[in-house]
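Long-time lurker, first post. I've been practising inverse folding by hand and with some scripts of my own, and I keep getting stuck on stretches where the structure tokens seem ambiguous. Below is the full token string for one chain I'm working on. Before anyone asks, I'm not after the true native sequence, just a reasonable design that respects the backbone. If someone could post their per-position residues I'd love to compare against what I wrote down in my notebook.
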């Protein structure tokens, strides 16, 4: 381009020189200069006009021009060609992206900052009954009128997915922020999966109930036989009796779990007094322990066992069951004369109820799996101590229902600390 401008400059200088020479010859220097420059300006205006027409509809055929204009057309045509190529590439990528999102079984909706719909795929159209022409630009909560969904959207806390029922269908929704305040909503119809879950839960609950009756009958007969038997069969009968007690415990814990899973949401209008809860769990632990360990109860507030720490929103019976399970485990997995401490503490994130022991501890790799059903670090030791492998699964289920979490810190041979952490929103102020 620099050489073209240089050429154009030379042309203009030569043109002026020619005009000066001609002007001097005819003694009309000013008139020649004026007329020559006017011709030059008109010629450039003419070319500008042609360029603006060509730009409105660029094509391969560029006008017949010379000088700097020829070069401008050449550069512009190549720029246009490059852009056309990039646009074609982008269109094909966009088409491929649209094809893949259209084929997605998940309903996908793109929202802008104001929660207005920017785009959605056919699955979303079907699930939420959206109209491609009418609903683009509409606020999503004016079209998906489900209070739970609207709250979720307005709260803007999308760490956990949301499940809600819409026109008889169970829907799982997750929202991912992207770009400049935009959101990608993806929704799945989980009606069938949830029905299967219900069936599985019902099956476990029914099977547990059905097993209980024959077990009670067996237990009765074993007791009867134990009274009648001689020394040779006494021992085997004792073993059978121990196993029926164990089976009965597994069954009742399975029933507890099934009840918790199918129970309606926790009634948050009710409150639980932490002092009463901890005192009762403590007394129960003392009687279960029969003076084999040093069990201590402490409240953070002035270290006084009678000082109220707080009141929690939730279900007393469920929380009592969770704390009892943790205390029973501490007793089970702490050698005689070891220390066990039950304590509550309030902090800036909420309230924690913890059971700390100086027992056998757990190595790190087992910790993430402890709340799985029937997961035991040492199956032999657990059974020997009367464990079922369901206790911590029950604790987790109860804490999930109370929007709380279980934090486990443990080291082999040093002891464990199991803390139930309740958020600030669970504390009655
Ligand atoms: P279990 O009925 O076998 O005790 P849980 O679900 O209550 O089942 O606990 C799962 C496993 O976690 C136990 O088998 C045990 O190995 C380990 N565990 C639980 N609590 C403690 C504890 N306080 N100290 C050491 N290990 C523990």
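-- Answer (accepted) --
I ran through it position by position. Result:
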């Amino acid at each position: 381009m620099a050489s073209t401008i240089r050429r154009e400059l030379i042309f203009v200088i030569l043109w002026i020189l020619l005009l000066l020479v001609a002007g001097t010859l005819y003694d009309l220097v000013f008139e020649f200069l004026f007329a020559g420059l006017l011709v030059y300006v008109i010629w450039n205006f003419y070319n500008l006009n042609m360029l603006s027409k060509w730009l409105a509809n660029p094509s391969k055929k560029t006008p017949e021009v010379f000088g700097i204009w020829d070069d401008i057309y050449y550069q512009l045509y190549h720029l246009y060609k490059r852009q056309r190529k990039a646009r074609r590439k982008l269109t094909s990528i966009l088409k491929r992206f649209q094809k893949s999102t259209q084929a997605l079984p998940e309903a996908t909706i793109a929202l802008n900052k104001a929660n207005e719909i920017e785009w959605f795929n056919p699955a979303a159209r079907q699930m939420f009954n959206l109209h491609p022409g009418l609903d683009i630009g509409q606020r999503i909560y004016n079209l998906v009128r489900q209070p739970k969904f609207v709250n979720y959207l307005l709260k803007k806390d999308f760490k956990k997915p949301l499940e809600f029922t819409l026109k008889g269908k169970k829907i799982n929704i997750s929202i991912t922020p992207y770009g400049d305040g935009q959101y990608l909503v993806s929704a799945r119809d989980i009606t069938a999966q949830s029905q299967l879950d219900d069936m599985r839960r019902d099956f476990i609950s029914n099977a547990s109930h059905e097993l209980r009756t024959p077990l009670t009958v067996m237990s009765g007969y074993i007791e009867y036989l134990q009274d009648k038997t001689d020394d040779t069969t006494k021992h085997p009968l004792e073993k059978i009796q121990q196993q029926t007690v164990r089976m009965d415990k597994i069954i009742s814990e399975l029933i507890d779990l099934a009840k918790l899973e199918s129970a309606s949401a926790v009634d948050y209008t009710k409150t639980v007094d932490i002092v009463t809860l901890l005192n009762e769990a403590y007394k129960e632990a003392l009687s279960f322990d029969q003076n084999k360990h040093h069990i201590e109860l402490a409240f953070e507030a002035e270290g006084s066992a009678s000082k109220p720490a707080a009141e929690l929103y939730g279900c007393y019976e469920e929380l009592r069951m969770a704390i009892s399970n943790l205390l029973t485990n501490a007793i089970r997995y702490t050698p005689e004369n070891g220390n066990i401490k039950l304590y509550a503490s309030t902090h800036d994130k909420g309230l924690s109820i913890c059971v700390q022991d100086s027992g056998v501890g757990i190595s790190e790799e087992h910790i993430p799996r402890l709340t799985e059903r029937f997961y035991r670090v040492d199956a032999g030791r657990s059974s020997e101590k009367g464990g079922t492998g369901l206790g911590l699964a029950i604790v987790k289920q109860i804490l999930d229902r109370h929007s709380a979490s279980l934090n486990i810190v443990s080291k082999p041979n040093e002891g464990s600390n199991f803390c139930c952490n309740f958020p600030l929103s669970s504390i009655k102020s």
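A couple of notes from the structure itself: Residues 2-94 form one domain. The chain is about 55% helix and 20% strand. Happy to go over any region you disagree with.
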